[in-house]
């Protein structure tokens, strides 16, 4: 869709600065919601013994995902180049249908709304929505 | 026919009993117009929608937020047959207002986020699931009369 403006990037970086201490918990909560509200996403995690909230695999993976988002924030000026390795991982090894990136993004936004009710203003909401969409696009780059 | 579990019925009724209708409708519609600006195409008569501040303080947006909540309350009161309850609303949106039905999902996502912000930790994954199911049925019912 649309590329990130300078204002979008500043908004994302400033908001990320506020939320990054809670990043792992945000990731875990977003994953739990995704698996619960969109059960078809569980098909990617059949190798986990335990998918329940608070379980070790969910916590670990929530942290992994948010580390990727942190990396994206750092590389916000060139996401395609910056996320090349992650794109190859998702395209060739994980083969996650890219429609699911949107689903996870939605759940991240829900968690942000719950955890940061005052800071997650409409302006921050649109910047984060655009940013996560841009990350999804960069992750899809190597698919075909 | 949509089947609602006891948990889902209770959760959905509970959400609507707790949220501030005046705040939620207006906030959700504002976010929709801000986050997905192309949705402004349906609100040409609303005046100043030039930036987030203008949208958030626009009295027509606030008034229309209330209209939307009234519509949702109709569905809430007729959960076992939202499809029939919404027949006229669906015709209105398709034939008179000519709204691209994909926009219903965008407003739905904004409603979810605003309700989440209002309820906080009480908006558990299970409650979120129930609420999103309710919205999905509402959207499907609004889409029903599109030809």
TrEMBL record, chain A:
<dbReference type="GO" id="GO:0004601">
    <property type="term" value="F:peroxidase activity"/>
</dbReference>
<keyword id="KW-0349">Heme</keyword>
<dbReference type="GO" id="GO:0020037">
    <property type="term" value="F:heme binding"/>
</dbReference>
<dbReference type="Pfam" id="PF00042">
    <property type="entry name" value="Globin"/>
</dbReference>
<comment type="similarity">
    <text>Belongs to the globin family.</text>
</comment>
<dbReference type="InterPro" id="IPR002338">
    <property type="entry name" value="Hemoglobin_a-typ"/>
</dbReference>
<dbReference type="GO" id="GO:0031720">
    <property type="term" value="F:haptoglobin binding"/>
</dbReference>
<dbReference type="InterPro" id="IPR000971">
    <property type="entry name" value="Globin"/>
</dbReference>
<dbReference type="GO" id="GO:0043177">
    <property type="term" value="F:organic acid binding"/>
</dbReference>
<keyword id="KW-0561">Oxygen transport</keyword>
<keyword id="KW-0479">Metal-binding</keyword>
<dbReference type="GO" id="GO:0019825">
    <property type="term" value="F:oxygen binding"/>
</dbReference>
<dbReference type="InterPro" id="IPR012292">
    <property type="entry name" value="Globin/Proto"/>
</dbReference>
<keyword id="KW-0813">Transport</keyword>
<dbReference type="GO" id="GO:0046872">
    <property type="term" value="F:metal ion binding"/>
</dbReference>
<dbReference type="GO" id="GO:0005344">
    <property type="term" value="F:oxygen carrier activity"/>
</dbReference>
<dbReference type="InterPro" id="IPR050056">
    <property type="entry name" value="Hemoglobin_oxygen_transport"/>
</dbReference>
<dbReference type="GO" id="GO:0042744">
    <property type="term" value="P:hydrogen peroxide catabolic process"/>
</dbReference>
<protein>
    <recommendedName>
        <fullName>Globin domain-containing protein</fullName>
    </recommendedName>
</protein>
<dbReference type="GO" id="GO:0072562">
    <property type="term" value="C:blood microparticle"/>
</dbReference>
<keyword id="KW-0408">Iron</keyword>
<dbReference type="GO" id="GO:0005833">
    <property type="term" value="C:hemoglobin complex"/>
</dbReference>
Automatic annotation (TrEMBL), chain B:
<keyword id="KW-0813">Transport</keyword>
<dbReference type="GO" id="GO:0042744">
    <property type="term" value="P:hydrogen peroxide catabolic process"/>
</dbReference>
<dbReference type="InterPro" id="IPR050056">
    <property type="entry name" value="Hemoglobin_oxygen_transport"/>
</dbReference>
<keyword id="KW-0479">Metal-binding</keyword>
<dbReference type="GO" id="GO:0004601">
    <property type="term" value="F:peroxidase activity"/>
</dbReference>
<dbReference type="Pfam" id="PF00042">
    <property type="entry name" value="Globin"/>
</dbReference>
<keyword id="KW-0349">Heme</keyword>
<keyword id="KW-0561">Oxygen transport</keyword>
<keyword id="KW-0408">Iron</keyword>
<protein>
    <submittedName>
        <fullName>Hemoglobin subunit beta-like</fullName>
    </submittedName>
</protein>
<dbReference type="GO" id="GO:0046872">
    <property type="term" value="F:metal ion binding"/>
</dbReference>
<dbReference type="InterPro" id="IPR000971">
    <property type="entry name" value="Globin"/>
</dbReference>
<dbReference type="GO" id="GO:0005344">
    <property type="term" value="F:oxygen carrier activity"/>
</dbReference>
<dbReference type="GO" id="GO:0031720">
    <property type="term" value="F:haptoglobin binding"/>
</dbReference>
<dbReference type="GO" id="GO:0005833">
    <property type="term" value="C:hemoglobin complex"/>
</dbReference>
<dbReference type="InterPro" id="IPR012292">
    <property type="entry name" value="Globin/Proto"/>
</dbReference>
<dbReference type="GO" id="GO:0072562">
    <property type="term" value="C:blood microparticle"/>
</dbReference>
<feature type="domain" description="Globin">
    <location>
        <begin position="3"/>
        <end position="147"/>
    </location>
</feature>
<dbReference type="GO" id="GO:0020037">
    <property type="term" value="F:heme binding"/>
</dbReference>
<dbReference type="GO" id="GO:0019825">
    <property type="term" value="F:oxygen binding"/>
</dbReference>
<dbReference type="InterPro" id="IPR009050">
    <property type="entry name" value="Globin-like_sf"/>
</dbReference>
<dbReference type="InterPro" id="IPR002337">
    <property type="entry name" value="Hemoglobin_b"/>
</dbReference>
């Amino acid at each position: 869709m649309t590329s990130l403006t300078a204002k979008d990037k500043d908004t994302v970086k400033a908001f990320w600065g506020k939320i990054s201490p809670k990043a792992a918990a945000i990731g875990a909560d977003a994953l739990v919601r995704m698996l619960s509200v969109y059960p078809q996403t569980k098909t990617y995690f059949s190798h986990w013994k335990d998918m329940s909230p608070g379980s070790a695999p969910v916590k670990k993976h929530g942290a992994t995902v948010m580390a990727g988002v942190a990396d994206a924030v750092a590389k916000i000026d060139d996401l395609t180049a910056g996320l090349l390795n992650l794109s190859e991982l998702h395209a060739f090894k994980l083969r996650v249908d890219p429609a699911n990136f949107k689903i996870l993004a939605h759940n991240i936004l829900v968690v942000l709304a719950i955890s940061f009710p005052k800071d997650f203003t409409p302006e921050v909401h649109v910047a984060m929505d655009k940013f996560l969409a841009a990350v999804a696009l960069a992750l899809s780059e190597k698919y075909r | 026919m949509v089947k609602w579990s006891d948990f889902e019925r209770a959760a959905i009724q509970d959400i609507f009993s707790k949220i501030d209708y005046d705040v939620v409708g207006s906030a959700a519609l504002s976010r929709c117009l801000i986050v997905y600006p192309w949705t402004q195409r349906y609100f040409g008569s609303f005046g100043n929608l030039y930036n987030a501040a203008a949208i958030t303080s626009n009295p027509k947006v606030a008034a229309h937020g209330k209209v939307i909540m009234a519509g949702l309350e109709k569905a809430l009161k007729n959960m076992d047959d939202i499809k029939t309850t919404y027949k006229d609303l669906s015709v209105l949106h398709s034939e008179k207002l000519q709204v691209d039905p994909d926009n219903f999902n965008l407003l739905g996502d904004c409603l979810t986020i605003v309700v989440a912000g209002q309820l906080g930790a009480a908006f558990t994954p299970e409650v979120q699931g129930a609420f999103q199911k309710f919205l999905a049925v509402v959207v499907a019912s609004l889409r029903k009369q599109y030809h």
